[in-house]
Design a protein that fits this description.
Elements lengths: L4 E5 L4 E6 L2 E11 L5 E9 L8 H15 L9 H9 L9 H13 L5
Antiparallel strand pairs: 1-2, 2-3, 3-4
Length: 114
């Protein structure tokens, strides 16, 4: 999708894909601070009218690019992002098991967040 813009709304915990100023997809995530800093995607959502256009993949790729710029790993709790990582081992690596456990514990401790 050539007119796709992706913006990171860190305060809201959303990486958003926009086209024509309209949000057409997003990855909802949080920043894990302990035992190490990591970006943790929880959900990937693409509006039905925009499915099949590569938006979710563009969001996942940008999430990993942001993490690389910040020198932080990505610890995926999102089924889509986890599958994306499996299909793109040259662009993303699986999460460290200890960080994955910490991310799951954080999410359990914040049940209303997502």
């Amino acid at each position: 999708m050539k007119d796709l813009e992706i913006r990171d709304d860190r305060a809201a915990g959303r990486l958003e894909a926009l086209t024509g100023g309209e949000v057409v997809g997003r990855i909802e995530y949080f920043v894990l601070e302990s035992p190490a800093r990591a970006l943790v995607p929880v959900h990937t959502i693409v509006e039905p009218a925009h499915e099949g256009q590569g938006i979710a993949g563009s969001l996942a790729r940008e999430l990993y690019a942001i993490a690389a710029r910040e020198h932080s790993p990505v610890v995926s709790l999102c089924p889509y992002v986890t599958r994306w990582v499996e299909r793109h081992p040259d662009e993303a690596r699986p999460a460290d098991p200890d960080l994955l456990t910490a991310a799951k514990e954080w999410l359990s401790a914040h049940p209303g967040r997502f």
